[in-house]
UniProtKB/TrEMBL annotation:
Leading EC class: transferase
A Pfam family hit: Stress-antifung
CDD domains xrefs: Gnk2-like
UniProt entry keywords in alphabetical sequence: ATP-binding, Glycoprotein, Kinase, Membrane, Nucleotide-binding, Receptor, Repeat, Serine/threonine-protein kinase, Signal, Transferase, Transmembrane, Transmembrane helix
Name of protein: non-specific serine/threonine protein kinase
Domain Protein kinase: residue ranges: 322-505
Highest taxon listed in the record's lineage: Eukaryota
SMART domains: S_TKc
InterPro entries xrefs: CR_Ser/Thr_kinase (IPR052059), GNK2 (IPR002902), GNK2_sf (IPR038408), Kinase-like_dom_sf (IPR011009), Prot_kinase_dom (IPR000719), Ser/Thr_kinase_AS (IPR008271)
Stored Gene3D superfamilies: Gnk2 domain, C-X8-C-X2-C motif, Phosphorylase Kinase, domain 1, Transferase(Phosphotransferase) domain 1
Keyword Glycoprotein applies: yes
Boundaries of every Gnk2-homologous domain copy: 28-129, 137-243
Length: 505
């Protein structure tokens, strides 16, 4: 029997398949460990206050890779901490913070929440927890799969010996170097790598206690090839694969005298070079900061020129003062509410939490990029409001939920057939194709994921959330102004690699 295939199997079909894979199959990497408190805060604006605290943390993390925040309210207090691990570069740190922020949204309205990722830690609570090192109630260890030699008695014993050595060494390295250390133990077939990081807020005694307890628990993972200790005051990980960007020390069973000698010999030769480079980088950062301040002052004028302005008071009334009963969803940038305009038209109102440089950039970027384009598979922007205490975006109302809510719903009424899934894939690909040239300009969305694909009453897809989108020249696929674009909205590591190669948007 000969099959008739209605859709041509060309490059576009392959592209659609890649989109399908990124939306429907989960990442195989470590997705993080989320812990939410059991006590809830009933105040209506609690979630808003938590996100204000997170935004304050964002400014600190983006400048020095960690920070704490305290928000006082007559009804409750909010303490926050966020920290990237010391081996993580600035771009990955910002990406990890955004991801952790989105995950912590799942905890609200709980009064506390913490999330561990492979590059950062993020926590909020109702009391001052900054010097807590251990907490038996929440401290947790995750172990990977056993090594291939776990059935061999000698090899298993050798691996356990290496594991004991590398954990002891990384504990000592972290205590010597202000709470952060990386080590490796070589010899034989397998090399074992380890990283330890204490939070900046705990003292040396609490760090020592946390690392000691974490190391004892982590040893129990052997003969697993990988393990993580997710503790209240520290993070420790080992693996047979090198997972950190640069080490603070290398330890072999024969000792590390040669490495110390080499380090001393090279340090004098590189000192002058580092001083020159440091001065140049400082000068460039200062120049860029001045440019950003100038640009931030100019941005609102751009938005005021648009003809899409709504009155803040009208949108506030349309959403019943942003009542929780009108809430459609919440993400890292803000909450979305259903609203009914005076002409009885239903709309979706996105209420942005923040007004810093980053979020102002995203706000006006979204207004300017999509206000002039229309496509059946793109959510239509109706307007915005910048006159009130908060920035608001107004979109067409899409009655069904986002694709991820449909896919992971326990309600069997929302099980999608393969025909419906294929139509969603095709519609998403058509929307992306339009963005990539059909509108006369080339726009990269940079944040395609199931939660940003909305479904209308016919389950037709509409791509939403253009806050991270960028225009590029028609002959460029992954570079803007000569530098590679990070993919800050994507949590799936494989999707990120495909995007960088131009196979995904």
């Amino acid at each position: 029997m000969r099959l008739s295939i209605p859709y041509p199997w060309n490059i576009k079909t392959i592209w659609m398949f890649l989109v399908f894979c990124s939306c429907f199959f989960p990442s195989l990497s470590f997705e993080g460990h989320l812990i939410c408190g059991t006590n809830n805060q009933t105040s209506d604006n609690f979630g808003h206050k938590v996100n204000e605290a997170m935004e304050s943390l964002w400014e600190l993390v983006s400048s020095k890779s960690w920070g704490t925040v305290f928000k006082k309210d007559p009804k409750y207090n909010i303490f926050g901490l966020a920290q990237c691990y010391q081996d993580v570069n600035a771009d990955d740190c910002e990406l990890c913070f955004k991801t952790s922020q989105e995950k912590l949204q799942q905890c609200i309205p709980a009064r506390s929440g913490r999330v561990y990722l492979d590059q950062c830690f993020h926590r909020f609570d109702h009391y001052n927890f900054y010097n807590e090192g251990v907490d038996p109630k929440y401290d947790h260890v995750t172990c990977g799969s056993p090594t291939g030699d776990s059935n061999d008695t000698y090899m298993s014993q050798d691996f356990q010996s290496k594991l004991d050595h590398v954990i002891l060494n990384v504990e000592e390295a972290a205590l010597r170097k202000n709470g952060y250390g990386t080590t490796e133990v070589k010899g034989g077939v397998v090399t074992v790598y380890a990283l330890a990081q204490c939070w900046k807020t705990i003292d040396k005694q609490a760090c020592d206690k946390c690392l000691t307890d974490a190391g004892m628990r982590l040893r129990e993972c052997g003969p697993a090839a990988e393990g993580r200790a997710l503790f209240t005051g520290c993070y420790m990980r080992y693996s047979t694969n090198r997972f950190f960007d640069h080490g603070s020390g290398t330890v072999e069973k024969k000792g590390f005298t040669d490495w110390v000698t080499l380090g001393v010999a090279l340090s004098g030769a590189t000192f002058l070079l580092l001083a020159v480079v440091g001065a140049f980088v400082s000068y460039k950062k200062l120049s860029r900061t001045k440019e950003e301040v100038t640009g931030l002052d100019a941005l609102p004028a751009t938005g005021l020129k648009t003809s899409l302005n709504f009155k803040y008071e009208m949108l506030e009334k349309a959403t019943n003062n942003f009542n929780e009963s009108m809430k459609l969803g919440q993400g890292g940038a803000g909450s979305v509410f259903k609203g009914v305009l005076p002409n009885a038209e239903a709309v979706a109102v996105k209420r942005l939490f923040f007004n810093t440089r980053q979020w102002v950039d995203q706000f006006f970027n979204e207004v300017n990029l999509i206000s002039g384009i229309q496509h059946k598979n793109l959510v239509r922007l109706l307007g915005c409001s910048i006159e009130g205490p908060e920035s608001l975006l107004v979109y067409e109302y899409v009655p069904n939920r986002s694709l991820d809510q449909i896919l992971f719903s326990k309600d069997k009424r929302y099980i999608l057939s393969w025909s419906q899934r294929f139509n969603i894939i095709c519609g998403t690909a058509e929307g992306l194709a339009y963005l990539h040239g059909g509108s006369g300009v080339k726009i990269l969305h940079r944040d395609i994921k199931a939660s940003n694909i909305l479904l209308d009453e016919h389950l037709s897809p509409k791509i939403a959330d253009f806050g991270l989108a960028r225009c590029v020249a028609s002959d460029k696929s992954h570079r803007i102004h000569g530098s590679r674009i990070p993919c800050p909205g994507t949590t799936n590591r494989e999707s990120r690699r495909l995007w960088i190669r131009g196979a995904s948007s």
